[in-house]
Amino acid sequence: MKYQRILLKLSGEALMGDLTHGIDPVRIDSYAKEIKKVFDLGLEIAIVIGGGNIFRGVSGASKGMDRVQADYMGMLATVINGLALQSALENNDVPTRLQTAIKIEAIAEPFIKRKATRHLEKGRVVIFGSGTGNPYFTTDSAAVLRAIEINADVILKGTRVDGIYNEDPEKNKEAVKFDSISFDDVLKKGLKVMDTTAFTLSQENKLPIIVFDMNTPGNLMSVVKGENIGTRVDL
Hints:
Layout: E1 5-10, H1 25-39, E2 44-49, H2 57-62, H3 67-91, E3 96-100, E4 109-110, H4 113-121, E5 125-129, H5 139-149, E6 154-159, E7 164-165, E8 177-178, E9 180-182, H6 183-189, H7 196-204, E10 209-213, H8 219-224, E11 231-234
Parallel strand pairs: 1-2, 1-6, 2-5, 3-4, 3-5, 6-10, 9-11
Antiparallel strand pairs: 7-8, 10-11
Helix pairs in contact: 1-3, 5-7
């Protein structure tokens, strides 16, 4: 197996499926089934999920809401998504733990690095909610931070696009996909992989990122096996 411990980053929007907002039960169950296939191989899996399907802090702030308050609302949205994913995984016989950077002890453990690592070693999928627990930081930053803290081998960013392109493939059908690209070339070409803070943190810690289409069944399995799926960003 190519990797032993992975950090899977999922966007909140991905959970909408064909809905305009909220959580599509069919989509989240399909994700859970894909994760279970990888889990059954014996991989250690941590997950960070966004909250954009429920509330996005930046969007709220742009409409006049206090940015700090808006970001905390966004963090709570990620906890809702974390609970939904936890339920879907456990319905598929995958043991999980939900940890949050903001204390919500009635429904989740507080994030503790050693405890999270121990859960992974004991064969539990760990879902990290509420981002970093700080306003002005995205869930991309949370994903990279948690991946570094738990010593993950790679960050797998599951999106609705099958990799990184020189232009937006949804707007330009002639856009060219990269199979692999260096951190430096991403910056030189001005490509959007993650927000700048998250991307720089990943680069500084030599933590590779693979961007792939999570909505295609079997892709997650192919990625963890080291097959040429999506785009790999490395040194």
